[in-house]
Design a protein that fits this description.
Length: 499
């Protein structure tokens, strides 16, 4: 009997990955491909949806070839994706009508700050768990309908489909037969009622979005559709058995199944997510309430803090300043440095996310003296990731009324031992890094496996978890306090200057 495998597609902000998991939950192989980022105006960020799709096709073919398996051996597909990024395409031709507007894009900040939407922000907050911010899909859809000539009329005639990236990939994999999304992605659109688990007619009316363009929302673990013959080199009829937004997938991949468990993903941005079980907690300080995934199809909730720029600050040092050849060189460069010599780097390239939600802030490097050099700036950039995490972490503890003693981590930047140790120091809690740091891909593969009966439930999945390293705090409380106060001062100066 042929061995069976699960294909996990992890479509991220800067690139696409495909992973092949075997029935023991291990990664057989993976493939990665970056795609172009478009910045047509300051604060605007776009992707080409066709480039996203072609990158996925490329990595799927590469991964299956590397694994030396036949497409017929793929039992199921799981999809996890960058959330909030907004794509509109023609229903008949599957052609995107405009570039995808990326979650980082700030073009709709003026719309969010308008009297029209500020007057109803509490209604959106209560129904969606989200704040009125350009981060989310709703105002991006409205912008496209308002600015692309003829688009609104086509949308109202049902000729246009909206989707976050998961919906786009489902559409392409099924040959246009399925227009669907899952609850976790839907909960990030600003138009989905997270208590009723359905699109909200009242919110759609406010944002002037016709419901006919929306995908069908479904539980994260389920049968979303089947592949058509030849697409991405796959055989016909492979079920798409799980779909999750990347941060919820990471929460699931870490085994954070119980209320009070928490993870942080260090990717392009930084995303802390705390499982709150069946309790929906509304933050008063800038955290988000969102839907998490459960293998029984029941809604779970989570609190989330979203940091817009984390690993992207290291990419900026690499690509724009060219002080690094590879992102991984940042750890070597700061080795042996005792501190930053008072330098703070606030990477507010597209504003500040949680808990500030200041779309007008812009990046700054402060505290420079003649004694500071490029190494200190690189270390300050790494520390900024940890400080932004602390901004959210402290608020999350306060609002959930819990003392968090262990933080599970994943994402590319968590491989940086300096960053992880500094994170433990500045938070004062243990940092647990798993052997498999690709928790997003792992999470959706596990849920697809549960859907298909490969694993029976969470107890099976817990036995698959392996720890790579635990980082324990080594910093005195007074030093932690002084460093963090310096960070808060740097943030405030940035906001005072720009905001």
């Amino acid at each position: 009997m042929k061995r069976r495998y699960i294909l996990s597609i992890d479509q991220g902000t800067t690139g696409s990955r495909a992973f092949i998991f075997d029935e023991s939950g291990k990664i057989v192989t993976s493939a990665y491909q970056e795609f172009e980022q478009y910045f047509p105006q300051p604060g605007w960020v776009e992707h080409d949806a066709e480039e996203i799709w072609s990158s996925c096709v490329s990595v799927i073919k590469k991964a299956t070839t590397q694994a030396k398996i036949q497409p017929s051996q793929i039992l199921a597909i799981g999809i996890t994706n960058q959330r909030e990024t907004t794509i509109l395409w023609e229903r008949k031709t599957a052609r995107p009508v405009y570039h995808a507007i990326v979650w980082q894009c700030r073009r709709t900040s003026p719309m969010c700050a308008s009297k029209e939407l500020q007057s109803v922000k509490d209604i959106f907050r209560r129904k969606t768990g989200l704040v009125m911010d350009a981060y989310f899909s709703g105002t991006k859809i409205r912008w496209l309908l308002d600015h692309v000539p003829g688009l609104r009329a086509k949308a109202e005639r049902g000729e246009i489909c909206f989707g976050t990236v998961d919906s786009w990939l489902i559409w392409k994999l099924t040959g246009g037969k399925v227009h669907a999304t899952d609850y976790t992605n839907a909960s990030r659109t600003l138009i989905f009622n997270i208590q009723k688990l359905q699109w909200d007619d009242g919110l759609l009316k406010i944002l002037k979005i016709p419901s006919i363009i929306l995908p069908r929302p479904m539980a994260s673990g389920g049968h979303f559709g089947r592949t058509v013959k030849g697409v991405a080199g796959l055989t016909e009829g492979i079920p798409i058995a799980a779909v999750m937004g990347d941060q919820q997938a990471a929460l699931y991949g870490h085994g954070c199944y119980e209320p009070g468990t928490i993870k942080n993903t260090y990717g392009t941005g930084c995303f802390l997510v705390l499982n709150t079980g069946n309790k929906l907690i509304y933050s008063k300080g800038g955290l988000l309430s969102t839907v998490a995934a459960d293998d029984r199809g029941q809604p779970l909730y989570a609190m989330e803090g979203s940091v817009f720029i984390a690993g992207a600050v290291i990419q900026w040092l690499r690509d724009q300043l060219r002080v690094l050849k590879k992102s991984a060189d940042s750890e070597k460069l700061v080795h042996g440095l005792k501190d930053t010599k008072g330098v703070y780097f606030v990477p507010a390239f597209v504003g500040l996310g949680a808990p500030y939600w200041d779309g007008q802030a812009r990046g700054s490097i402060s505290g420079l003296t003649r004694g500071a050099n490029v190494k200190h700036i690189v270390r300050a950039a790494l520390e900024s990731i940890a400080y932004q995490t602390k901004d959210v972490f402290d608020l999350m503890q306060k609002e959930s009324h819990q003392t968090i003693r262990t933080l599970k981590v994943d994402g590319g930047a968590c491989k940086n031992n300096f960053l992880m140790q500094f994170q433990a120091n500045i938070l004062g809690c243990k940092i647990v890094r798993p052997r498999v740091i690709e928790s997003t891909a792992q999470g959706v593969a596990y849920l697809a496996g549960i859907t298909m009966g490969v694993w029976k439930g969470k107890e099976d999945l817990k036995r698959l978890q392996r720890v790579d390293k635990v980082f324990t705090p080594r910093m005195k409380q007074q030093e932690r306090k002084e460093l963090y106060e310096g960070w808060l001062t740097a943030v405030e100066k940035t906001r005072t200057k720009i905001g």
